[in-house]
Amino acid sequence: MPWFKKPRSERETRKKLTDEMWVKCQKCNAHIFKQDFINNLKVCTKCGWHGKVTAYERIGMILDAGTFKEINETIQPCDPLSFVDGKGPYTERVEQARRKTGLNESVVTGTGKIDGTPVVIAVMDFRFLGGSLGSGTGEKILLGSSYAHDHKLPYIVFSASGGARMHEGILSLMQMAKTCSGLARLTEKNIPYISVLTDPTTGGVSASFAMVGDINIAEPGALIGFAGRRVIEQTIKQKLPDNFQTAEFVLDHGFLDMIVSRGDMKKTLSSIISFYNR
């Protein structure tokens, strides 16, 4: 071994230590102490870039401590097509996602309080098969809306998804109409539905429940859209703006009501709910 080349085990140890200590911002490339990044709600302390958080991390940021009670946690994906592709059976991929995340589906639903006010909340987790909208996901979001309807509670959904889960065929697309029908029942009873779009919110999720809130909120810089940028450019034969499909672009074009940073999200949601409860 050349004298200038560190042994593999030593290089791996140094890389592990670096990964444990630092986070590299995906926007400004700054290196941030990992603990500082976590303490700042996984937001870059240099430029404000919002990193991804897990469902339970977000619940901890939004709800009053000790108030969250999960509902319908046993609902799981189904495999109506016995789907298999080059990566193997769909069921194996689901099991890998369950082991990786500790979740049964790509959304966590439950009840809790925001500054003392009871709410129903659904939070998608991008780690579980890209936060894709499967039959189990749609069922949990629908049941969450039904609980909000029956108990006359505000319903808040945090979206983070690559779109419909096509491994389940037409059943995945049916969730778009199914979830929206549940939300329509809330409108009939004047129960507020607040949609929060986080990075990314795309495909069938952006085309259904994510964009039909009484109030639509997004985190700064979130990717929001339906089809991918390359697909659109190839279809219309035009170059798209650099900020296309960012939360800021979507707000400028009237599809959002506001952009709220992660640190201000709980306070903003509390204010909105208080307005509806007057």
Rg for CA atoms: 20 Å
Report the helical percentage.
Answer: 25-40%
Shape: globular
The termini sit apart by 74 Å
H and E order: HEEHHEEEHEEHEHEHEHHEH
The biggest beta sheet, please? 7 strands, mixed
Structural class: alpha/beta
CATH fold topology of the largest domain: 2-enoyl-CoA Hydratase, Chain A, domain 1
Low-confidence stretches: none
The CATH architecture term of the largest domain is: Alpha-Beta Complex
How many E strands? 11
CATH structural class of the largest domain: Alpha Beta
Portion of residues in beta strands equals 15-25%
Give the strand order of the largest sheet, numbering strands 1, 2, ... along the chain. Answer: 3-6-7-8-9-10-11
The figure for the number of domains is: 2
Mean pLDDT: 94
| Number of contiguous helices | 10
CATH homology superfamily name of the largest domain: 2-enoyl-CoA Hydratase, Chain A, domain 1
